[in-house]
């Protein structure tokens, strides 16, 4: 119930907002936040230049002074004796909590900084907006943050009378806008532990306020200006600093402290309590579906479903000599150890004959009297071939089901893809609607019998009228229906090769529609393939009308090579605006299924079985021209009996979608992972056959692991032989670069790049110029000249002057990278300080740190562009197999994976873009394109892995795009912008751009997709409230998925195989994963350093680490770090992704338009798209989730 979770989240947010300020609610402070620290003492002062102007009363100031005694002034303050206990003082100050304070014992500290980061400015603006809700406040351009932490009253440390243990912690935040300034004072709960300090031999209350100091009076005289005091001479006023508010949250106080010279008053915030009308919880209008609620059986009170841990068994998958994809050696199967169990033929089945004008055109395989010796290859890789007296038959092995020609793993979800053609008349229309190669896609969760179907490119004139025909694609529901004890679904009996012909007669108009379908088995992508033809007339259903189909039961009657069924079905049509009311209609359905069974083995199928279909949902999506169906299917007895209550037969078991439910006694059951998967049944992960059986693909081939299976792909320079199994050497022109027969300059000055055929390009290496055949050392960069100048700044006289120049003691020497650019972090060892610099080497204000600390600097400098003739920034071709792609300033590098191991010695640049700083990368497995964001353009661009130019995708209305994700099914691009605070979407070419979210975002960065469920996930590393959110891809059902125990969730990835969302957190220093469907969260590793980006591949997670400047591999199953890769150039690594050789199941589709999910009647429609013919791998197009 997503809406209930959402409402509860709103209520929780309300509680968080109104409760007292906790210590964690302060703005981040300390060394990691980039703070400077005041020298310990009882009256210390530090000057802080501001990178902007601060308004206080009617004046502006460009520097401030921070003092131990709880205040900030705009002039250097006098000795404390001149103002403590003598307020108002003669100088301008902001007294956060003024008193005689002391931090000389080492426990207390005063932190301060000027901060212009977007997250701090946004958070500050939010406090101001909350305090002045009727105003339209300016956006801060900079923020002063001062924190007094664990301050003691002077004279109390070490006294031992109890007062020395009392400490005060508070914070002052000043927001500088273009025309005004605001002060935010934060007093966390329980952190004001003393209310007075000894001054001049007597106790004086602490005080807070804004002091104008001396101002000009008459005749050049001076007078005392305004002293706006926020506390009084009563102790209660100080206690109430943590208990009350003027900004909507207890402990937080906001004041406008300066603007124009005319208006000089201090203006307090206006929200002393939380107005109900502003913060009342928002409740969603949730409409219950009008369809009947499924009649689930009630469990006896004395017995509840019990989950039993299954016995651990070795995973079953083909032996090395029995690969599931192109094999190297002929298949060899052992002879069966046990005889075939006897089966009984059905006796005198009742057959319903379908009237036909022509014979069924059945194009199915046929058995003959040959033996297994010559026909083993005709059986499934998961079947055994058995000889009989007059021929052979194929039988699926344990753990699989089907007819032996086609076998699929028990419990594994199944997909169906195909095309729809034909002519359909609607109502009384004299002209038919033509259908030509419309895509049909279906998906079944086999362990609970739920089926989903979509047909694309349906025109508005036909789409609404196809809604009653749920069985148009519902045959897959029968094929993979949830089996009741002693009964088998269609695929178990006849496999995936059969013909189906159905006739539909509508009442009361007697319209007739003929449906012919040809199922041609399981393709190389484990998808059932079907072609469909429609011919006839259907009654008209107005556009916008909804159709509800009542649950129904259908009797299937079985005979040799023939199955028939018939039923009457009722449906209700409701007009779009309710004006026409609801009409109940019906139609008769009759169908015949023809197939070729093995004639040599006895069948054991019941003569009749009943298919029960409920939870039926149909809809025509006019925006995307898609007809969608969803239903639950069970196959069982045709005779009335008590319904099965074991969860395995009701589908309410909670096993993983890649698991089979094994019933036990009563309501007991176990979950067992499907073949090709490992786990406890509740959570199943893919078995990597490529790693466990490295030689499964044979020589000169690369094994690519797939969910529950694997594929083989020939190495570069090799192709499959004519039999499609063995990889043989490809005949191609000479690669002169590899042979060394090129005429490029020496390898230490030039690079030879093979470009196909016998062609190559010579280019000079960084630091050199020329045409690649002759390269000379290039002119030095500003950083290099700066460095040489500093090194030469030594005494030129004396006996040692002829030695190599070196810097004088204490001389700062800039650090340059190998391209000659300034390193983003510069350090001066003699004084023990480090700071950040921009591209020109200028220090970035407020980034300087003291000894033992190094600032985390974003590399704002870009790699200098090469000088002289160089190749275009094309992509260097990538060899087959899976690679890691990662961003490193002005380039994207790739390193191949051998299974899960990083082939470090083969790392190479994929793409040089020297004038850009690349942050995020993503990969489109359909078109083999890499996408990336850069913050220097800013822009989003793409390029093909096979080579070619860089193609701009998004170049306008961007500020800081830091996250990017691809939906390879719907052909969509998603990204986050941490400056615009948006989550946005467009098609892959940048068209049809839309903002999905622009509220309640502070620092959105990583973003990932789950195409199978049409879900979007992103993280916001807002230091005050980090969170991970999810929504549908059209922006509906936005939900906070994780908000507890987060720090800086920088990296995010989604494992499509295991349906696991994982993140790397630089604040908690952990990597964690969660099942977003069941909200099961678990820690993978802890104690990591500073992760930036994260990607999942099989059982491994790979993340980039800023501090280690490395790619780190983590095994999710052993929960250990396994490997580290250090690129040749040591600098910060940013985004990371993989280039899988094949798309995950349910891929390679192109979306028409951006309108995806909707919510209707308790069923959530997640995703739709339309496949193009040029793609090899069709996919499932949509998935529903029953509410």
Automatic annotation (TrEMBL):
InterPro entries: 6-blade_b-propeller_TolB-like, Cueball_EGF_LRP_Nidogen, EGF, EGF-like_Ca-bd_dom, EGF-type_Asp/Asn_hydroxyl_site, EGF_Ca-bd_CS, G2_nidogen/fibulin_G2F, GFP
GO CC term, one of those recorded: basement membrane
Subcellular localization(s) per the UniProt record: Secreted, Extracellular space, Extracellular matrix, Basement membrane
Record domain NIDO: where: 96-260
Entry keyword Cytoplasm: no
Pfam families to which the protein is assigned, alphabetical: EGF_3, EGF_CA, G2F, Ldl_recept_b, NIDO, Thyroglobulin_1
Placement of LDL-receptor class B repeats on the sequence: 928-970, 971-1013, 1014-1058
Keywords: Basement membrane, Calcium, Cell adhesion, Disulfide bond, EGF-like domain, Extracellular matrix, Glycoprotein, Repeat, Secreted, Signal
Gene Ontology terms: biological process: canonical Wnt signaling pathway; cell-matrix adhesion
Presence of keyword rRNA-binding: no
Name under which the protein is recorded: Nidogen 1
Lineage per the UniProt record: Eukaryota, Metazoa, Chordata, Craniata, Vertebrata
Gene that encodes the chain: LOC116058469
């Amino acid at each position: 119930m997503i809406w209930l979770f959402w409402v509860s989240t709103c209520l929780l947010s309300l509680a968080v907002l109104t409760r007292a300020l906790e210590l964690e609610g302060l703005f981040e402070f300390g060394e990691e936040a980039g703070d400077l620290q005041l020298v310990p003492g009882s009256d210390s002062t530090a000057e802080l230049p501001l990178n902007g102007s601060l308004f206080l009363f009617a004046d502006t100031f460009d520097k401030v002074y921070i003092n131990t005694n709880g205040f900030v002034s705009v002039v250097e303050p006098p000795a404390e004796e001149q103002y403590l206990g003598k307020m108002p003082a003669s100088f301008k100050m902001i007294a956060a909590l003024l008193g005689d304070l002391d931090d000389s014992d080492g426990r207390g500290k005063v932190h301060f900084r000027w901060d212009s980061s977007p997250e701090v400015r946004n958070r500050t603006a939010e406090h101001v907006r909350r305090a002045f809700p009727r105003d339209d406040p300016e956006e801060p351009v900079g923020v002063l943050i001062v924190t007094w932490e664990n301050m003691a009253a002077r004279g109390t440390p070490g006294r031992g009378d109890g007062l020395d243990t009392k400490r005060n912690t508070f914070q002052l935040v000043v927001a500088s806008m273009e025309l005004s300034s605001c002060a935010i004072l934060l007093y966390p709960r329980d952190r004001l532990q003393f209310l007075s300090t000894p001054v001049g031999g007597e106790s004086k209350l602490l005080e807070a306020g804004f002091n104008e100091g001396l101002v000009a009076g008459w005749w050049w005289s001076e007078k005392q200006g305004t002293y706006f005091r926020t506390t009084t001479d009563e102790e209660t006023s100080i206690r109430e600093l943590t208990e009350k508010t003027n900004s909507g949250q207890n402990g937080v106080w906001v004041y406008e402290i300066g603007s124009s010279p005319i208006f000089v008053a201090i203006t307090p915030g206006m929200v002393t309590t939380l107005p109900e009308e502003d913060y009342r919880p928002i409740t969603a209008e949730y409409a219950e579906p009008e369809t009947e609620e499924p009649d689930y059986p009630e469990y006896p009170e004395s017995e509840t479903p019990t989950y039993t841990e299954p016995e651990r068994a070795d995973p079953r998958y083909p032996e090395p000599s029995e690969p599931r994809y192109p094999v190297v050696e002929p298949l060899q199967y052992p002879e069966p150890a046990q005889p075939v169990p006897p089966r009984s033929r059905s006796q005198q089945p009742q057959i319903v004959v379908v009237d036909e004008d022509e014979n069924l055109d059945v194009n199915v395989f046929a058995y003959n009297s040959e033996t297994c010796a010559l026909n083993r290859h005709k059986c499934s890789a998961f079947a055994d071939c058995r000889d009989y007296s007059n021929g052979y038959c194929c039988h699926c092995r344990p753990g699989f089901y089907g007819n032996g020609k086609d076998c699929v793993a028990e419990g594994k979800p199944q997909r169906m893809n195909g095309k729809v053609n034909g002519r359909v008349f609607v109502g009384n229309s004299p002209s038919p609607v033509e259908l030509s190669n419309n895509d049909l896609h279906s998906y079944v969760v086999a362990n609970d019998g739920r089926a989903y179907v979509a047909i694309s490119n349906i025109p508005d004139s036909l789409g609404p009228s196809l809604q009653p025909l749920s069985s148009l694609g519902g045959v897959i529901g029968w094929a993979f229906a949830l089996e009741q004890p002693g009964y088998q679904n269609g695929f178990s009996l006849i496999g995936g090769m059969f013909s189906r012909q159905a006739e539909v007669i509508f009442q009361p108009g007697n319209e007739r529609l003929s449906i012919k379908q040809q199922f041609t088995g399981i393709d190389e992508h484990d998808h059932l393939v079907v072609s469909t033809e429609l011919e006839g007339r259907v009654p008209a259903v107005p556009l916008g009308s909804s159709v509800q189909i009542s649950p129904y039961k259908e009797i299937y009657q079985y005979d040799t090579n023939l199955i028939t069924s018939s039923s009457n079905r009722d449906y209700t049509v409701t007009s779009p605006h309710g004006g026409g009311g609801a009409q109940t209609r019906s139609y008769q359905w009759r169908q015949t299924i023809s197939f070729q069974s093995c004639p040599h083995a006895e069948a054991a199928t019941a003569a009749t079985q009943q298919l029960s279909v409920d939870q039926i949902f149909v809809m025509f999506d006019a925006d995307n021209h898609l007809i969608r169906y969803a239903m639950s299917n069970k196959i069982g007895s045709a005779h009335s009996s008590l319904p099965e209550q074991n969860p395995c037969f009701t589908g309410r078991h909670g096993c993983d979608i890649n698991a089979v439910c094994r019933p036990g006694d009563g309501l007991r059951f176990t979950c067992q992972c499907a073949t090709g998967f490992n786990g406890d049944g509740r959570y199943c992960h893919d078995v990597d056959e490529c790693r466990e059986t490295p030689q499964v693909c044979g020589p000169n081939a690369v094994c690519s692991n797939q969910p529950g299976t694997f594929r083989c792909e020939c190495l570069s320079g090799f192709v499959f032989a004519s039999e499609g199994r063995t990889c043989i050497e490809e005949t191609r022109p000479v690669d002169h670069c590899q042979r060394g027969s090129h005429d490029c300059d020496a390898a230490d000055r030039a690079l030879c790049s093979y470009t196909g055929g016998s062609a190559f390009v010579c280019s000079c290496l960084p630091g050199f110029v020329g045409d690649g055949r002759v390269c000379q050392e290039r002119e030095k960069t500003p950083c290099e000249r700066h460095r040489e100048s500093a090194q030469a700044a030594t005494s030129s006289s004396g006996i040692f002057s002829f030695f190599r120049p070196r810097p004088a003691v204490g001389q700062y020497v800039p650090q340059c990278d190998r391209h000659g650019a300034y390193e983003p972090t510069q350090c001066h060892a003699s004084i023990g300080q480090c700071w950040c610099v921009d591209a020109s080497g200028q220090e970035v204000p407020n980034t300087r740190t003291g000894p033992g600390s190094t600032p985390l600097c974003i590399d704002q400098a870009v790699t200098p562009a090469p000088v002289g003739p160089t190749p275009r920034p094309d992509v260097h071709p990538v060899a087959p197999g899976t690679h890691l792609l990662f961003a490193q300033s002005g380039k994207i590098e790739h390193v191949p994976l051998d299974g899960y191991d990083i082939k470090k010695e083969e790392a190479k640049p994929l793409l040089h873009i020297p004038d850009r700083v690349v942050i995020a990368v993503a990969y489109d497995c359909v078109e083999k394109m890499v996408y990336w964001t850069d913050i220097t353009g800013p822009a989003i661009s793409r390029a093909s892995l096979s080579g070619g130019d860089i193609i701009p995708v998004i170049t306008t209305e961007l500020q800081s795009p830091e996250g990017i994700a691809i939906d390879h099914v719907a052909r969509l691009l998603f990204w986050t912008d941490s400056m615009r605070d948006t989550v946005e979407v467009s098609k892959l070419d940048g068209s049809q751009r839309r903002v999905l979210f622009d509220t309640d975002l502070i620092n959105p960065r990583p973003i990932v997709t789950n195409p199978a469920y049409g879900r979007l996930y992103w993280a916001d590393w807002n230091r005050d409230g980090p969170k991970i959110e999810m929504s549908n891809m059209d922006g509906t059902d936005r939900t906070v998925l994780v908000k507890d125990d987060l720090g800086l969730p920088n990296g995010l990835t989604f494992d499509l195989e295991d349906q696991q969302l994982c993140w790397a957190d630089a604040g908690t220093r952990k990597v964690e994963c969660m099942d977003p469907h069941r909200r099961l969260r678990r820690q993978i590793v802890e104690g990591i350093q500073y992760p930036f980006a994260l990607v999942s591949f099989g059982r491994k997670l790979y993340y980039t680490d800023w501090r280690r400047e490395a790619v780190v591999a983590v095994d999710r199953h052993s929960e250990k770090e396994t490997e580290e890769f250090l690129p040749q150039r040591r600098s910060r690594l940013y985004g990371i992704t993989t280039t899988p050789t094949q798309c995950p199941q349910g891929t390679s589709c192109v979306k028409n338009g951006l309108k995806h999910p909707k919510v209707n009647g308790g069923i959530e429609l997640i995703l739709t798209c339309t496949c193009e013919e040029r793609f090899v791998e069709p996919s499932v197009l949509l998935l529903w989730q029953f509410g």
